[in-house]
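Input record, target 12 of the design panel.
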């Protein structure tokens, strides 16, 4: 099998204190989140990263499947922040903001974030984030933050047909392949920096930056959750990470979990 990721290049010049100081790598794994969780339970340090060239059982939220062919960037980071359960959601915003900023800075792409955990290019999903939290009474013991980026493959060639309308890849957007190691390092550096901003200055500082990429705000959306589908105007994201939705009858609802579908999609 030809390697997509050059291990020697992975750590060269990485400018972080903790994130990525220890990296576990496999050509193929079920899910980097499951792999990382297993090691987190055994005591993996803050910042330990689990990276795979492909995943055979990549996971999204609510047991959804995440398709992860070779050529993508699939990794999970174990974080051990001092946070209460009610604050852990902030790390999803940290991760999606990190991806949005890095894709813009490295490749000049116009990125958008979609509440709660997607990064889009040209209104299509290029990245998904999955954060899984382990608690110790009411505090966070660790969070595994999984990041999946469709990088060096064409969507029509490597993803199933039902995703062609909603997914994109860096290769499709840029018309070329990118250096995965460079993207990976830039992401680890950004993740660490934004994580520190979040822990030192609070969620609202991260949220203000995140909102600069939130093109869905001010749009008519459907919010689909386990038990309901709400239609309304996406007004804001509040300081608890909830989507603030103005419903048709004028009432304002704060929704903590669900998926946003833009009315035009
Ligand atoms: C997500 O879930 O978007 C979280 C995806 C997290 C993936 C990373 S990869 C590294 C780490 N290890 C894991 O096992 N997971 C993480 P959600 O919002 O629930 O979206 C899932 C939905 O996205 C699916 O139901 C599909 O509709 C769609 N989807 C699946 N694979 C995709 C892909 N490669 N690109 C774009 N959309 C995809």
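The sequence produced for target 12 reads:
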């Amino acid at each position: 099998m030809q390697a997509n990721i050059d291990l020697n290049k992975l750590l060269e010049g990485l400018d972080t204190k903790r994130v990525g100081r220890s990296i576990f790598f496999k050509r193929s794994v079920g899910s980097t989140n499951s792999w990382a969780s297993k090691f987190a339970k055994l005591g993996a340090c803050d910042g330990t990263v689990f990276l795979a060239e492909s995943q055979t059982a990549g996971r999204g939220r609510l047991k959804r499947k995440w398709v992860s062919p070779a050529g993508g960037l699939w990794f999970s980071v174990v974080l051990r922040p001092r946070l209460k359960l009610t604050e852990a959601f902030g790390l999803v915003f940290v991760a999606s903001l990190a991806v949005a900023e890095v894709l813009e800075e490295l490749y000049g792409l116009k990125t958008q974030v979609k509440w709660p955990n997607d990064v889009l290019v040209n209104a299509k999903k290029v990245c998904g984030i999955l954060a899984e939290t382990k608690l110790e009474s009411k505090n966070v013991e660790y969070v595994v933050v999984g990041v999946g980026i469709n990088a060096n493959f064409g969507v029509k060639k490597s993803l199933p047909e039902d995703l062609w309308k909603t997914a994109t890849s860096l290769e499709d957007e840029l018309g070329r392949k990118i250096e995965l190691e460079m993207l990976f390092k830039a992401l680890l550096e950004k993740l660490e920096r934004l994580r520190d901003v979040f822990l030192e200055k609070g969620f609202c500082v991260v949220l203000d930056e995140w909102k600069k990429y939130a093109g869905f705000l001010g749009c008519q959306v459907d919010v689909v959750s386990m038990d309901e589908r709400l239609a309304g105007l996406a007004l804001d994201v509040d300081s608890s990470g909830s989507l603030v939705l103005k419903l048709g009858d004028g009432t304002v609802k704060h929704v903590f979990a669900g998926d946003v579908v833009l009315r035009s999609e």
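The longest strand covers residues 124-136.
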